[in-house]
């Protein structure tokens, strides 16, 4: 009996607890507690029109109404269309201009349209050119090989202060103005091989590389001491020119001298060395080519005492 009473009492307590309402701890702001919703301040009521008007007042910018489209489909004015379009390529009419496609040539085409411009390098190879085209002022390397250029004028390279290399291989050049190159302050490499040149012009002292092979310089094409002041010259190639002498003096900086297939018949003991100074050593000049000349190198053995290597040529 006692057990039955305990079960009945426990069931009664469980039912009492389960029927009680569950309440959470909710914190209300006492300022608006027990106020009807309609009487709440407008701060809590969202009004789209009022928000739009407020934004207009704050920013001072009139917003488009709902009836207006967000993006106008009307055509742009001619002035706006011109500004929005891709910029046009305008070329300078001046021979020394700096238009997008380079200065205008005599053929009515900009240089960089007639030739190929990659950065500051201009390639005009094999274009049937009869003259040096006007070049952009920032040109650094210029190649115009396999054309029909016959003459280099005084101002063909004027004001090209960045020019470092000129390559005019395989043209018909027979005449070069005396001042064509020496006014170029940074010119380092000059390649004029396979032309018809009979006389070298004044050369700038900045040159490190000269190739005038396969021309017609002969006996008088290179003036006396032409290379004396070229203190940075390292490579000098004058092959196949019908030369009858070695152009002296040669700068101490020279590393390679190619004179093969000329008409050089004799050499002197002071051509490369110093006769009175047997301690003098010319270490830089390691490559001398004299093969193909009617000269017997064994006749002047003391001419090579200061060199690290013997010249290549006939020793018998």
Automatic annotation (TrEMBL):
Location of region: Disordered: 63-101
SMART domains to which the protein is assigned, alphabetical: LRR_TYP (SM00369), LRRNT (SM00013)
Signal sequence extent: 1-19
GO biological process, alphabetically ordered: articular cartilage development; bone development
UniProt domain LRRNT: residue ranges: 111-141
Entry-linked Gene3D superfamilies: Ribonuclease Inhibitor
Entry keyword set: Disulfide bond, Extracellular matrix, Glycoprotein, Leucine-rich repeat, Repeat, Secreted, Signal
One cellular component term from this protein's GO annotations in UniProt: extracellular matrix
SUPFAM superfamilies cross-referenced by the UniProt entry: L domain-like
InterPro entries with a match to the protein in the record: Leu-rich_rpt, Leu-rich_rpt_typical-subtyp, LRR_dom_sf, LRRNT, Mimecan/Epiphycan/Opticin
Subcellular location, record wording: Secreted, Extracellular space, Extracellular matrix
Major location (coarse): secreted
Protein name per the record: Epiphycan
């Amino acid at each position: 009996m006692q057990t039955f009473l305990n079960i009945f009492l426990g069931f009664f307590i469980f039912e009492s607890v389960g029927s009680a309402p569950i309440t959470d701890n909710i914190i209300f702001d006492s300022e608006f507690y027990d106020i009807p919703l309609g009487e709440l301040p407008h701060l809590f009521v969202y009004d789209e029109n009022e928000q739009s008007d407020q934004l207009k007042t704050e920013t001072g910018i009139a917003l488009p109404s709902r009836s207006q489209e967000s993006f106008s489909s009307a055509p742009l004015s001619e002035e706006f269309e011109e500004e929005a379009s891709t910029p046009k390529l305008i070329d300078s009419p001046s021979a020394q201009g700096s238009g997008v496609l380079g200065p205008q040539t005599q053929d009515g085409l900009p240089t960089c349209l007639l030739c190929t411009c990659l950065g500051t390098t201009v390639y005009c190879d094999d274009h049937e050119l009869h003259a040096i085209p006007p070049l952009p002022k920032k040109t650094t390397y210029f190649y115009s090989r396999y054309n029909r250029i016959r003459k280099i004028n005084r101002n063909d390279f004027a004001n090209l202060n960045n020019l470092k290399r000129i390559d005019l291989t395989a043209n018909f050049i027979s005449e070069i103005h005396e001042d064509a190159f020496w006014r170029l302050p940074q010119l380092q490499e000059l390649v004029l091989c396979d032309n018809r040149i009979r006389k070298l012009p004044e050369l700038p002292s900045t040159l490190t590389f000269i190739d005038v092979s396969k021309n017609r310089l002969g006996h008088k094409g290179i003036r006396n001491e032409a290379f004396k002041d070229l203190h940075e010259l390292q490579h000098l190639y004058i092959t196949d020119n019908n030369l009858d002498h070695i152009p002296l003096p040669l700068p101490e900086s020279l590393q390679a001298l190619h004179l093969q297939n000329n008409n050089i018949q004799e050499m002197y003991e002071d051509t490369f060395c110093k006769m009175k100074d047997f301690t003098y050593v010319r270490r830089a000049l390691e490559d001398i080519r004299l093969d193909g000349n009617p000269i017997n190198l064994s006749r002047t053995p003391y001419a090579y005492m200061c060199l690290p290597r013997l010249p290549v040529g006939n020793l018998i």
